[in-house]
Every structure is written in C-alpha cells, then in structure tokens.
Amino acid sequence: MSSFLSHTSVDCRNAYELSTWWRDLLGYRDIPGVPNLPGHDECMIERPDAGHQLLFIEVPEGKSLKNRIHFDLRPSDGTQAEEVERLLGVGATQIVDLRGKYGPGSGWVVLADPEGNEFCILRSAGERAAQGPESGTG
Questions:
Q1: What is the largest CA-CA distance in the chain?
Q2: pLDDT tens-digit profile of 32-47?
Q3: Nearest-5° Cα angle at 109, 64 to 75
Q4: How far is CA 105 from CA 26, 33, 131, 137, in A?
Q5: I need a labelling partner for 89 at 20 to 30 A (CA). Which of 24, 35, 109, 120 fits?
Q6: For residue 62, what is the DSSP state?
C-alpha cells in the first residue's frame, strides 16, 4: 500500500490574493467550475494540464519562522537570472543569493512571496546541461 500527493497546501493570511499571485507566477489556473473569489478562505489552483494543485488556506497566525518545506522552481524557458528578475518585478523579494555556492554556474536564489513564504529559483535545464553535472545543486 502507498499514498500519493493530492495537492500542496499553503497557509496564508489572504487565500484569494496569494492564490492569484502564485497562479500568475506559475501559469496555473483556477479549477474549472470552481472560481476563486475575494473573501474565499480557501482557494485552489492547478496546472493547466489538470496536474499538480495548490490549495491556499487562510489561518489566523502569521508566518514567523523559516519554512520547513518550500518550492524549488526551475525556469521553463530563459535563464535563472531572467526568472529572478521577472519574479522580483511581480512582487517577490530576494532573501539570499546563493549562486556560485558550489563553484561557478552552481547554486540558487532564495525569494519570498508577498506573505514571506520562501522558495528557490534553480538554474534552467539548459544552464545545468551547459555546466555539466559536476557544477552542484541548483
């Protein structure tokens, strides 16, 4: 017997605003027939292929410590640097830049969403291929 991931849940202060931010950032969509609206205390989005789902749930307490689980995002097209700039332009904040941590061409950048949830931007598949496997994580 085993289990599978149904969806990933994110605690937040404003489910509608944060789900909309992540929906636009990831190119996800609202669940067909189940629109997310301002004032909803739970909002779910999914990949357009009806794949992975994210559920945003309002909770009374704010975020106070580092996430124990986070998203690692790899650019679909373009480079890591281009994706970092795009996300900073839509409201992400940079926490720490760890590019080069394991030598030239390695590493990641830690960003935070509008509610302070950390996530990482890795190198694109093309950048990883160009550097080779010895260039470390990210």
A1: 48
A2: 999 999 999 999 999 9
A3: 115
A4: 24, 44, 6, 10
A5: 35
A6: P
The vertex-118 CA angle with 115 and 123, nearest 5°, equals 135
Residue 64 has a pLDDT of 78
Closest C-alpha among 43, 5, 6 to residue 21: 43
Instruction: State how far the Cα of 12 lies from the Cα of 110, in Å rounded to an integer.
Output: 19
CA dist list (Å): 53 to 5, 30, 46, 93: 9, 10, 4, 24
pLDDT > 90: percent of the chain: 67
Q: What angle do CA 48, 90, 125 make, to 5 degrees?
A: 60
Domains and CATH numbers, the chain: 7-62 (3.30.720), 65-138 (3.30.720)
In terms of Cβ atoms closer than 10 Å to its own Cβ (0-12, 13-18, 19+), residue 107 is: buried
**3-class state of residue 44 by DSSP:** strand
